[in-house]
Design goal:
The structure holds two protein chains of two kinds. By secondary structure, chain A is α/β, with parallel strands linked by helices. Chain A has a single domain, classed as NADH:ubiquinone oxidoreductase Nqo5 subunit (Beta Polymerase, domain 2, 2-Layer Sandwich), CATH 3.30.460.80. In chain A, the strands form two sheets. Chain A has a five-stranded mixed beta sheet, covered by helices on one side. The model of chain A has no long low-confidence stretch (mean pLDDT about 85). The longest helix of chain B has 30 residues. Chain B starts with about 40 loop residues before the first strand and ends with a helix. By secondary structure, chain B is α+β, with helices and mostly antiparallel strands. Chain B has a three-stranded antiparallel beta sheet with strand order 1-2-3. In chain B, strand 4 and strand 5 form a beta hairpin. The chains are: A alpha/beta, B alpha+beta. At the A-B interface, strand 3 and helix 3 of A face strand 6, strand 7, strand 8 and helix 13 of B.
């Protein structure tokens, strides 16, 4: 299936999706990229998996990007079809204040831990996730480290020189 | 007392646990009061030799039967993705060594592939061949560690001494000669490789291939066709093809479930088009198949190395890449390769500066490990060790 056919197939069911193309002066990979409105993502994913002509049965990976200057997060879904061997990238934009999007773990169980990872590092909440807890860091960790405005709290483990922190306070004993 | 639940997407387990033990509720909840009346909670790891690193698995048991498993990861989290935002591109290669530390060449390689996609740099053929030789030797070294440690998990100690202490050591010696390091290579660089092979290295590689070829017979006698080993692994921890695909399982684990797909053959990168090799497949997706696929893959990797040593052209080993101040143009690129654990991918976003804006690692071990909570239910604790060993994870890459 060519990119046009793939996109048309999705567009007939979901009118709000848009094809994304590399902006002027940027280099993007050859994969088809589709912008999906946040409210449609679960429906689109279900359709992508269950449609026989699309058959995206392999959840390759899920991640997020913090576009702080545009005040949005972008959730990236990278999907692959084992029967047709085609690839698609879905992108969902969320506002940076209180970002929430529907979980797709019921479509592909393989997205479970990856959604937890995005929650853990970006603070994006996935509605309907069966167990949305931090996965790499511990519960109670201050902040969401992969956000661009994250400020590292200095602790005894870092010298701080590489990120320009002031020298550590003198240690007090007793 | 609340009862324990298995996730809604969990399918029936192959061996049914006694009635009243496997019940519904989040299986991940590790609080003591969530255990069923006949159940016991067993904390495996994070310091436990058979978890292959710092993995913790919270098991609920009914007698000796596993009724729920909740892997707990993150003990080795170093924030590599965050660190990458403060490192220049060449500095970042050093950190990728520390992800999957048994296949560091593959990590170097995939990161460089992603950066090269943005830079649109041409790699000299000799560098491509050196990458393939190094990558495939590293795959053999990694599978040798699996071969040895999986034997230990089952209770066979001797194969480890052969695979880990004898053959892998020879590969590490070759690596030490070519790049100076035995584990963290930093050999594959953006645009090519660090340096050409030293004088006589190609011949020593040939000697190794010649030496290694008859060894597999020895391995098979030692472990593969050992009746006790086969009893312990055949029919244990079966993973169906459909389930493996829906979980995003890749690499030898996926091929063991019978899905015939290898990125080296079906989406070839580098110069893999130049080589002929077979892709070993399993049928049942059980522990034995996962083991056998890796054992056979070693032979195929050796074939690739042999062909690459035959065909390697002379010439440069570094493409035209700026020596300092490397700034890939703005944009995004995704590269993935068939590492020894599955599809290792790098998703790279550049904003035109000398540091990545965002770097995401597609971690094959992390994604493969998810199936653990799915396939453990109903097995005995001893089988659980075999199943965990057969998935072949490296915690450096699970936790990143």
């Amino acid at each position: 299936m060519t990119h046009e056919e793939l996109f048309k197939e999705i567009k007939t069911r979901f009118n709000n999706v848009e094809e994304l193309r590399a902006p002027e002066g940027q280099i993007w990979g050859p994969e088809l990229q589709i912008k999906v409105p946040p409210q449609d993502i679960h429906g689109v994913c279900e359709h992508l998996k269950n449609s026989l002509t699309l058959a995206f049965d392999f959840p390759n990976f899920l991640t997020a990007i913090d576009w702080i200057q545009e005040n949005r997060f972008e959730i990236v879904y990278h999907l692959f079809s084992t029967s047709h061997q085609h690839t698609v990238i879905l992108k969902v934009s969320l506002g940076r204040d209180n970002p929430e999007v529907a979980s797709i773990t019921d479509v592909w169980p393989g997205m479970d831990w990856q959604e937890r990872e995005v929650y853990d590092l970006f603070g994006v909440r996935f509605q309907g996730h069966p167990n949305l807890k931090r996965i790499l860091l511990w519960e109670g960790y201050p902040g969401w480290p992969l956000r661009k405005d994250y400020v590292h709290t200095r602790d005894k483990y870092d010298s701080g020189l590489e990120i320009g922190l002031p020298p550590p306070p003198a240690e007090t004993h007793g | 007392m609340d009862e324990l639940k298995i996730p809604s997407h969990a399918a029936p387990s192959p061996v049914i646990a006694p009635a009243g033990s496997a019940v519904d509720g989040p299986v991940f909840d590790t609080k003591f009061e969530r255990i069923g009346p006949n159940e016991m909670l067993l904390n495996l790891g994070p310091q436990h030799p058979s978890t292959h690193g710092v993995l913790r698995v919270v098991l609920t048991l009914d007698g000796e039967v596993v009724t729920g498993a909740a892997p707990d990861v993150g003990y080795l989290h170093r924030g590599v993705e965050k660190l990458s935002e403060h490192r220049t591109y060449p500095q970042m290669i050093v950190l990728t060594d520390r992800l999957d530390y048994l296949t560091a060449m593959a990590n170097n390689w995939v990161f460089c592939l992603a950066a090269e996609k943005l830079l649109k740099v041409e790699i000299p053929p000799r560098a491509e061949y050196l990458r393939v030789i190094a990558g495939e030797l590293n795959r053999i070294a990694s599978h040798l560690v699996f071969f040895g440690t999986f034997g230990i998990d089952i209770g066979a100690y001797t194969p480890f001494l052969y695979a880990f202490g004898r053959e892998r050591e020879k590969i590490l010696d070759l690596f030490e000669e070519i790049c100076g390091a035995r584990i963290t290579y930093n050999y594959i660089r953006i645009g090519g490789v660090m340096a050409d092979a030293p004088a006589g290295w190609i011949d020593r590689c040939r000697e190794f291939v010649h030496y290694m070829k008859p060894i597999f017979k020895e391995y098979d006698d030692l472990l593969t066709y050992n009746p006790i080993f086969m009893d312990r692994t055949k029919g244990v921890g079966a993973l169906s093809k459909e389930k493996a695909i829906s979980y995003g399982v890749s690499g030898p684990n996926l091929r063991a479930s019978g899905f015939d797909y290898d990125l080296r053959r079906d989406a070839p990168y580098s110069v893999y088009k130049d080589f002929t090799f077979k892709v070993p497949l399993g049928q049942n997706g059980d522990c034995f198949d996962r083991f056998l696929v890796r054992r056979l893959e070693m032979e195929e990797s050796l074939r690739i190395v042999e062909q690459a040593l035959e065909k390697i052209p002379a010439g440069e080993t570094m493409g035209k890449v700026p020596k300092a101040n490397l700034r890939p143009p703005a944009g995004e690129a995704y590269a993935q390769i068939e590492s020894s654990r599955g599809w290792q991918g790098i998703y790279l976003i550049s904003n035109g500066t000398d540091k990545p804006y965002r770097l995401h690692i597609r971690p094959p071990s992390f994604i493969n490990l998810q199936i653990l909570q799915e396939i453990l239910n109903g097995y005995k604790v001893a089988d659980m060790i075999a199943i965990l060993g057969s998935i072949d994870i490296v915690l450096g890459e699970v936790d990143r």
